[in-house]
Design brief:
InterPro entries: STARD10_START (IPR041951), START-like_dom_sf (IPR023393), START_lipid-bd_dom (IPR002913), START_lipid_transfer (IPR051213). It holds the Pfam family START. Residues 250-274 are annotated as: Disordered. Keywords: Acetylation, Cell projection, Cilium, Cytoplasm, Flagellum, Lipid transport, Lipid-binding, Membrane, Phosphoprotein, Transport. The protein is α+β, with helices and mostly antiparallel strands. It has one domain (17-229): 2-Layer Sandwich (Alpha-D-Glucose-1,6-Bisphosphate, Chain A, domain 4), CATH 3.30.530.20. It is built from 4 helices and 11 strands; from the N terminus they run αβββααβββββββαβ. β4 (87-97) and β5 (100-107) form a beta hairpin. The longest helix has 32 residues, at 185-216. It is globular. It starts with 14 loop residues before the first helix and ends in a 32-residue tail after the last strand.
């Protein structure tokens, strides 16, 4: 399938992009299962592990969560601070259309690796019983790379939520991110074995607590559902350009050994007890 970013200019995903993303989530040809436990499966793309830009795909079945709730949780940035302990900060920069915006996200990497950040164009679409959210990296003139972060590149990342009846849904997460910096092999392996499954379980837990939380925090505010509530400044596509990985400085972190990794209790998935 053509990645959105194979196009030469920044474009807002259209229906064919969403359909193609959905097919990638559902189709298992060429994917190898790396983890399968407790309702979570993680796959890697065959033959691409040697390449730094690895494709990862995950699926979790959420038994007592509606598809709508899961969709809300993935959109609600104010709630994200409650459950995503790897996140340093996230904020929306501006909106492009009723279902596309541009945002910033930074996340903690286990020391001694440098922290990563992204600027992404995100677009979403409820499609019958399915909900999709997809993003890819763009450049915004007011948010250049920062000194203390490595600007990483999302080639294509997204979620597919499928309703399985009144109170059950399945979440697919598919990502192809260039972390910039030649990461050591053990990091790449740990991501598929520990970090990814933990992150999926975390989202599931967050969904179970969300209805209660949302009742107390602006229960009617859902700009992703009701565009008229959106107060973000409008930006135009012409302000954005594609974030190409090769235009960013590369940092070689491949020599960093696992022993030196600083492991804190809050370092999801890099902690040994997983």
């Amino acid at each position: 399938a053509v990645l959105l970013r194979d196009k030469m200019t920044v474009q807002i995903p259209d229906d064919s992009d969403f359909t193609s993303f959905k097919e990638q989530c559902e189709n298992l040809d060429g994917w190898t299962a790396r983890y399968n436990k407790g309702g979570v499966t993680v796959w890697c793309r065959d033959g691409e592990e040697t390449n730094s830009v690895q494709k990862l795909k995950m699926r979790i079945v959420c038994k007592d969560v509606t598809a709508e709730t899961l969709y809300d949780v993935l959109h609600d940035t104010s709630y994200r601070k409650k459950w995503d302990s790897n996140m340093i900060e996230t904020f929306d920069i501006g909106r492009l259309t009723v279902n596309a915006d541009v945002g910033y996200y930074s996340w903690k990497c286990p020391s001694p690796l440098k922290n990563r950040d992204f600027i992404t164009l995100r677009s979403w679409l409820p499609l019958g019983k399915d909900y999709l959210i997809i993003n890819y990296s763009v450049k915004h003139p007011q948010y250049p790379p920062k000194k203390d972060y490595v600007r990483a590149v999302s080639l294509q990342t997204g979620y597919l939520i499928q309703s399985n009846g009144a109170n059950c849904c399945t979440l697919y997460y598919l990502t192809q991110v260039d972390p910039k910096g030649s990461l050591p092999k053990w990091v790449v392996n740990k991501v598929s074995q520990f970090v990814a499954p933990k992150a999926m379980k975390k989202i599931y837990k967050a969904c179970q607590k969300y209805p209660e939380w949302k009742r107390k925090h602006n229960p009617n505010l859902k700009p992703w559902m009701y565009p008229e509530q959106n107060t973000l400044p409008c930006i135009s596509l012409s302000e954005l350009s594609l974030q190409r990985a090769d235009s960013l400085e590369n940092i070689d972190e491949s020599g960093l050994s696992e022993e030196k990794t600083h492991i804190s209790d809050d370092d999801e998935g890099f902690s040994k007890e997983s």
